[in-house]
């Protein structure tokens, strides 16, 4: 209160010192003495707002303002809400219009703050921690090769997977993902999303001892909504590329432990820096909301239609050419209620995606290939959501870089593959909700993000079950019969074996 009064006094005094308003030193000293007396009275009252303010002697406009009229006020005009918030603070009882200094004080002094334990005034802006939320999940795994080619002679493929570095003859417990997500609306039209992962392995080390559990940026984007309903948005930053239904689905929600080789080989890591436009019609969003409320595993915060441009070198890799990746996807859910009682509540979703790109793989001699290879695909997907029985399938075809073992060079070659998955959902049981599944996948083509873009030949059957004993915990147990070519152009043939895998995921 004292500070406000002193600032007001100084401002009023400065106004009074203008050449056209010259006053005697004695008159100014008298006014200062009166202000000091008023401040002293306010302090002694103990309740400054309710104490009767001292009055300053009336001054008329004559001799205090230029003949041309009132001085120009500050360019910062105080809004009505700001002035209303100052009504309850003491004011000088002066029978004259406000001077420029008083207007400036009203505009810039903060309004009185309510008690710490009281309600905030209407319209008070939210603090940063009220606008943003923090969540995440952690996946801890154990892999055990039951039988097969865990170890092989030099030059022959071992039983390995491009999706899980913990699969080896000596592997035990590993962290597959440790994610934190900071997200929220910073404006009615702007949403931000930031996600690092703290379980990333360091690649291309000089030493032979691998290192893991390092932090890496996964997502860093902002959504700008073009309408009040938020059905149309443009996403800027590092994000998932609009290709493949399973690629867009979060690993927190995915039923199987890993994505399929055929679809994920298009965009390993699923992400790149770019710009994507998404649109979702109202009735499509309504169907997705209904499925989410029923506990279905959807593919994420994406639109029914999406098209984007990206660097094209995939996640956290420096762009190597002036060509942009162009990708697009469309997906559409259909309610099957009209087909009869057997289809009551069932939803079938179908769609497709495609992209074109030029990619430069890393090469064995160091650096990246000086040549950019054609990299283009088209894919289809279909999902019958499990209520209680469901099916899911994707397939894609295209061309991409692949190492040729005969010519010992990277060439553009055809590729194809996909997966078919069946699942059954049980919502109530003594051990909580659970969902058994079975998946067959196959793929023949290059794995472009590995050194020299080696070829993968995958034929795998996996059966498993996910159950949720309590809400924050999800446990997945799986068995797989694998036939895989290792992602290393120096090792030939396909490894075969039987693998048991377990994962505990806790959500927070």
Task: Describe the fold and architecture.
The chain is mainly beta and 508 residues long. The protein has helices at 2-16, 25-45, 80-85, 100-108, 128-131, 245-248, 261-264, 282-293, and strands at residues 132-148, 173-187, 190-200, 214-225, 232-240, 271-279, 305-310, 325-335, 347-359, 373-384, 389-404, 409-424, 434-446, 455-467, 473-484, 495-507. The chain has a 16-stranded antiparallel β-barrel. A hairpin with a 2-residue loop joins strand 2 (173-187) and strand 3. Helix 1 packs antiparallel against helix 2. The longest helix is centred in the first third of the chain and has 21 residues, at 25-45. It is globular and about 105 Å long. The two termini are 46 Å apart.
What's the short version?
With 508 residues, this protein is mostly beta strands.
- The fraction of residues in strands falls at 35-45%
Proportion in helices: 10-25%
Report, as a whole number of angstroms, the end-to-end distance. 46 Å
Q: Could you describe the largest sheet, including whether it forms a barrel?
A: 16 strands, antiparallel, barrel
The secondary structure category is mainly beta
Total E-strand runs: 16
Report the total helices: 8
Query: What string gives the helices and strands in order?
Result: HHHHHEEEEEHHEHEEEEEEEEEE
Shape: globular
Oligomer: single chain
Order of neighbouring strands in the sheet with most strands: 1-2-3-4-5-6-7-8-9-10-11-12-13-14-15-16
Q: What is the arithmetic mean of pLDDT?
A: 83
How many whole angstroms does the radius of gyration measure? 34 Å
Low-confidence stretches: 13-22, 47-105
């Amino acid at each position: 209160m004292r500070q406000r009064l002193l600032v007001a006094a100084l401002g009023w005094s400065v106004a009074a010192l203008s050449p056209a308003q010259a006053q005697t030193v004695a008159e100014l000293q008298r006014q200062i003495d009166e202000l000091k007396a008023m401040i002293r009275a306010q302090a002694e009252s103990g309740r400054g707002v309710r104490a009767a303010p001292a009055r300053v002697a009336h001054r008329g406009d004559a001799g205090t303002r230029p003949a041309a009229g009132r001085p120009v006020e500050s360019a910062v005009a105080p809004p009505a809400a700001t002035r209303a918030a100052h009504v309850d603070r003491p004011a000088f009882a002066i029978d004259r219009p406000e001077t420029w200094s008083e207007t400036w004080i009203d505009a810039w002094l903060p309004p009185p703050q309510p008690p710490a334990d009281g309600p905030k005034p209407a319209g008070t802006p939210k603090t940063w921690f009220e606008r943003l939320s923090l969540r995440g999940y952690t996946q801890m795994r154990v892999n055990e090769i039951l039988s097969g080619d865990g170890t092989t002679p030099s030059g022959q493929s071992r039983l390995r997977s491009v999706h899980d570095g913990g699969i080896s003859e000596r592997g035990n417990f590993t962290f597959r993902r440790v994610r934190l997500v900071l997200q929220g609306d910073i404006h009615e039209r702007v949403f931000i999303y930031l996600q690092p992962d703290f379980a990333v392995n360091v690649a291309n080390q000089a030493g032979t001892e691998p290192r893991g559990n390092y932090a890496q940026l996964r997502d860093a984007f902002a959504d700008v909504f073009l309408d009040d309903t938020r059905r149309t948005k443009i996403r800027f930053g590092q994000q998932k590329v609009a290709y493949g239904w399973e690629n867009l689905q979060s690993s927190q929600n995915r039923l199987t432990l890993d994505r399929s080789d055929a679809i994920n080989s298009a965009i390993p890591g699923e992400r790149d820096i770019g710009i994507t436009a998404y649109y979702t019609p109202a009735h499509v969003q309504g169907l997705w909301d209904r499925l989410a409320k029923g506990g279905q595993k959807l593919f994420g915060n994406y639109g029914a239609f999406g098209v984007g441009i990206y660097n094209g070198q995939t996640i956290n890799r420096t762009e190597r050419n002036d060509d942009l990746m162009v990708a697009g996807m469309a997906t559409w859910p259909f309610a099957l209620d009209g087909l009869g009682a057997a289809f009551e509540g069932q939803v079938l979703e179908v769609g497709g995606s495609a992209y074109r790109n030029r990619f430069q793989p890393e090469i064995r001699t160091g650096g990246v290939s000086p040549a950019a290879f054609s990299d283009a695909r088209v894919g289809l997907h279909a999902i019958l959501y499990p209520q209680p029985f469901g099916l899911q399938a994707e397939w894609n075809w295209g061309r991409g870089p692949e190492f040729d073992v005969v010519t010992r060079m990277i060439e553009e070659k055809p590729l194809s593959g996909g997966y078919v998955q069946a699942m059954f959902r049980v919502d109530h049981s003594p051990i909580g909700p659970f969902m058994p599944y079975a998946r067959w996948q196959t793929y023949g083509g290059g794995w472009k993000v590995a050194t020299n873009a080696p070829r993968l030949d995958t034929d795998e059957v996996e059966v498993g079950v996910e159950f949720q004993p309590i809400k924050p915990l999800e446990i997945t147990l799986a068995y797989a019969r694998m036939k895989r070519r290792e992602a290393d152009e120096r090792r030939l043939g396909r490894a075969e074996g039987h693998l048991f895998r377990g994962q505990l995921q806790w959500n927070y």
